[in-house]
């Protein structure tokens, strides 16, 4: 029976689900007999735990690694760098520093995603476990930065000041540190607190909440707060369509990842999966958020000349 916090169904059904790397390491040391079929040989095992379909590690069965997602990640890196550059140019815009931090954090998640899901490194290795743990920490910190931007947009505290930046940075560090430590503990079993019982269930309530519940909750809260800011405070309608479009793109990325990825994997004979589509849609959502932010702060800019006080 599946319990709350069980990763076993996800690691079995969803190709390239990165947090499974942590449980692979744990199972190797606690219950290696639970690793069967595609996961039985760590040198060629794809991302996942006994997955129904997975991309073999590069160099095995003519595998080119998760090549489609590698290309998507490369394009996402370029797009995100461009967004960071554009954001930096709008020096008078409200929430510029906070939004730029969000973009930088999202940018950092991309190379870690590329490695943790790319079928480059051997399953169960220290390197893959550490990279996956850092990836998890960056993801939760990024979603805090997203929610933090919504809070800053309400102007409860003045953006760009110490009263805004100190708590903003504190929670970025807190989410990153807490999630990274928990992820490392799941993978390396430093303590028994985050160990799965039984090991085959791949259960970790803390990790599940941080990597699944928290991102969804942060995204929903962000949309609710920005709806209030745009419709209630600014009394505008046009910018709201950007936020609606970003939400649709994000939801579609998750539907693709969790529902269609296995279908694409099987249809492509384990050469690619749906992770590349999810990456493209997520980056598109971030780009739309930039244009949404731009649309509600444009009157704060001086496009050609900036007059300091």
Automatic annotation (TrEMBL):
This is Chitin synthase III catalytic subunit. It comes from Dichomitus squalens. GO terms for molecular function: unfolded protein binding. The chain crosses the membrane at residues 67-87, 99-121, 127-152, 164-184, 204-229, 241-260, 272-293. Pfam families: Chs7. GO terms for biological process: protein folding. It comes from the Eukaryota. Keywords: Membrane, Transmembrane, Transmembrane helix. GO terms for cellular component: endoplasmic reticulum membrane. The lineage of its organism: Eukaryota, Fungi, Dikarya, Basidiomycota, Agaricomycotina.
